[in-house]
Amino acid sequence: MSIEFIERNTIRDAIEQVRDDKNPNMWVMLGFEGNENWRKCSFNQVSLTGYGEDFNDLLNILTPTTVGFILVGIEDIYDNIPTYRFCYIYYLGDKVPLISRGRIGMKKQEIERFLGKYNVSLEYGEPSEVEFETIKNKVADASGSRVRIVENNEISEDRKISSFHSTHSKTALKASTNKKKESVVYQPKRNQKQKFTTSNKNVQESQLRFLDLEDIKFAITDVRNDKSSTDFMCIGYSGYKSENEIREIKLIAAGEGGIEGIKDSIRDTSANYAIVRVSHKIDETLAVYFVAIYWMGNGVNPLWKGKIATHRGAIDSLFEPVHLTIMANDEEDFDLQVIKKKIADISGTSNRGFSKK
């Protein structure tokens, strides 16, 4: 059954106000009708929860039992030109009942389409996680306004400079001599030390247990290494038979297979997290973007899906910074051309986004 948007025109007007760079309203939030009582909630009816020009007002209505579909307008400075971009936030409170989470997931995509185009998507589960500066920085990272871009003539065929600093070291993986690059199991050289620069506070404080955290960190750093042929890494759960297995993360694979390497590493019955390095040309310059892919196979037990959703913050902390995060349950969701289109959108090289006058 399709969703009924209560007072549809009012909701549309609130969304358009956020999209209007001359209007002071900078956020709008939609929610399920009657979600103050999940036992009586109508998952087929969506209403306007609120909108406004003060981000703190949005924070005040987020609770551990709230579900919100939020669009935020952010001014981003790109080459000294102010540009208005949009961030979509899916807020799923960590106290929302597991049985409700499954029904929410089935309605999520239709609500996202109703909100319209956006440049960055984020997910949160606790009010304390939602910070304006963090969101603004994510938008800046995605648009390329904080990306280090190099001129085309500075890049040879076998060397691309990444957007974020990484410590250079010899890769543990050798380039494939085949025309089709194969994904390989990652075997890091333990005598090679690389600096891991991401904040891992949430990783340490989460209920997740990383079975081989040092190898995972090494793989992430190797993907970021501009001298390494490694262009993807993928992690996943140790199993799906018990709650203990759902709390254990291990390194699945890493190598130079790119998107295809990730696809070889996932299953319809698995949940995985991956990073891939993608090059994108802007006029006569070339930038390297890092894309996080969060995979949830359609065959994963719905009860585990609710548990897995609470791990997002820890994985975000492990992977950050990335330019783009893609939530996927179909391999077509992260085809290379789909990713490049999204990169073009967030970098301002397509028609999405517009300059303020």
From TrEMBL:
Spell out the PROSITE patterns in the cross-references.
ADF_H
Domain ADF-H positions: 1-140, 207-344
GO BP term, pick one:
regulation of actin filament polymerization
Tell me the Pfam families matching this sequence. Answer: Cofilin_ADF (PF00241)
Q: Which SMART domains match?
A: ADF
Matching entries from Gene3D superfamilies are given as: Severin
Q: Which InterPro entries match?
A: ADF-H, ADF-H/Gelsolin-like_dom_sf
One GO cellular-component annotation of the UniProt record comes to: cortical actin cytoskeleton
GO terms for MF? actin filament binding
Q: What is this protein called?
A: Coactosin
Organism of origin: Anaeramoeba flamelloides
